[in-house]
Design goal:
Distance between the termini: 45 Å
CATH topology: Aminopeptidase
CATH class: Alpha Beta
Order of helices and strands: HHEEEHHEHHEEHEEHEHHEHHHH
Number of strands: 10
Largest sheet: 8 strands, mixed
Number of helices: 14
Structural class: alpha/beta
CATH architecture: 3-Layer(aba) Sandwich
Length: 446
């Protein structure tokens, strides 16, 4: 793990930056004073990591196998403790039926509106546990409970002109099942992939048994309807959806390889290129689908189109197999003409990159040919067979504490760099007031 910088300041104005979902919660009063953090929270614990070799994960819980991960309750409890120490927290809870998802904001108490409104969405796919963990690490950094990692921008400087809204647990009911050992579970309890249920280039039908099933209609699911309301209310200028299962950093459009996003296209491409060069060394650029592949709507495309966000991204932050092979193949592709293609406006779904994404499939860059293991992850029922379940666990998430800590630190710095860069871009944009006002008006009409 990288050496931390000495903390030069205390972030006294940290608001609550974290969001979670509790399917069992029935009251909006979700922050109760005096809550205590469970002694089982071991984000920096010294519990001995058992070797994965020969380990049988059948019936084993997340905490039993990996004590440095957090359960849903522990995420809530640690966030509560951070809020109590730092104060000035604000939280909004949106309910629908037995679903409750909270979005928590962090901002200074200055009266002028923030130049950049940053919405980060974690945990759309419940099996991608490292996504919310990286969000929790960002919370700790913003609240000053841990030193600012080396290479990160000045946190106080970012917060002078930006505010954050984080949804940490976007798929709360299925996450509880994953925590009990359903390692392959991607969809919500209705069998719908939440990141295929947004009303942008949506295409329905198909096999409802697939874990990538988009639902019977756009926003058929309570989780995506809640997220829609939160996004429309917040009217973000910057949006990021965080996933795992490969490494990649994408911008719109995810549904179409013929057209790139025109609004702030070059700024988004430059941002991805810059952050990739330090934090990922992986595919970056406009996503897109191969012609003829049925690809329903994603959150990143919907936010960019319907909320009129200036900058929208989807990042895949971890892969458990052949990470170095992925990076070497990507570097070779760039050297063989891929760099010029991307800078000239090509999608990652361009034929030049086909074999790259055949070897390392992405949730945002689709091709008709898919690796066998990835096909299984989409077609096999969530409970799967034992071998496949174990593959899912290690493919989507670090299963050693060293890799876990490296991932959450690396990506929390990348999130802050994205925030700093988009804030700088937003401050230089004369169109920001009209854009935010327009998004707010759209929210009121919806």
């Amino acid at each position: 793990m990288q050496q931390f910088m000495k903390q030069a300041f205390a972030v006294a104005f940290c608001s609550r930056v974290w969001a979670f979902g509790h399917p069992e919660r029935t009251s909006s009063a979700v922050l109760q004073a005096g809550s205590k953090v469970s002694s089982n929270i071991l984000g920096h614990g010294n519990a001995r990591l058992r070797s994965r070799q020969g380990r049988n994960t059948r019936g084993s819980s997340l905490k039993g196998l990996f004590p440095y991960y957090h359960t849903s309750d522990e995420l809530h409890e640690e966030a509560t403790q951070l809020v109590e120490r730092n104060g000035m927290a604000s939280i909004r809870t949106v309910h629908e039926g037995d679903i409750a998802i909270d979005v928590v904001s962090v901002k200074t108490q200055q009266q002028v509106p923030s130049t950049n409104r940053i919405f980060l969405l974690f945990g759309e796919h419940s099996r991608e546990l490292i996504s919310p963990e990286s969000g929790l690490h960002l919370l700790r950094v913003l609240c000053g409970s841990i030193p600012v990692p080396a290479g990160a921008p000045d946190v106080a400087g970012v917060l002078r002109n930006a505010e954050f809204a984080l949804v940490l647990n976007a798929n709360p009911r299925s996450r509880l099942k994953v925590e009990q050992g359903d390692w392959c579970l991607r969809a919500n309890p209705n069998g719908v992939d939440l990141n295929r249920n947004w009303d942008i280039a949506w295409s329905g039908g198909g096999n409802s048994q697939l874990q990538s099933y988009p639902g019977s209609k756009p926003f058929s699911e309570p989780e995506t309807r809640i997220l829609k309301r939160l996004l429309m209310d917040f009217a973000p200028t910057t949006f990021l959806s965080v996933h795992s299962g490969t490494l990649g950093m994408y911008m719109p459009w995810a549904y179409d390889r013929k057209h790139l996003a025109h609004r702030n296209q070059q700024e988004m491409m430059n941002l991805l290129k810059e952050i990739d060069s330090v934090h990922c060394h992986c595919p970056w650029g406009a996503a897109g689908k191969e012609v003829g592949y049925d690809c329903p709507g994603t959150s990143v495309d919907w936010v960019f189109s319907h909320v009129n966000a200036s900058y929208a991204f989807a990042w895949e932050i971890y892969v458990g197999e052949d990470e170095q092979g992925l990076r070497k193949r990507w570097e070779k592709k760039l050297q063989e003409g891929g760099q010029a293609l991307l800078e000239g406006g090509a999608h990652l779904a361009h034929e030049h990159f086909h074999d790259m994404f055949h070897q390392h499939p992405s949730d945002f860059v689709h091709h008709k040919r898919r690796k066998e293991k990835t096909i299984l992850s989409e077609t096999e029922p969530a409970h799967g067979n034992q071998e496949h379940r174990e593959w899912c666990l290690s493919h989507f998430n670090p299963t050693s504490q060293q890799k876990y800590e490296a991932a959450v630190e690396n990506w929390s710095v990348a999130y802050l760099k994205m925030a700093a860069r988009t804030t700088s871009l937003s401050m230089s944009s004369s169109q920001l007031p009209n854009k935010v006002h327009g998004a707010a008006q759209l929210a009121r009409k919806t």
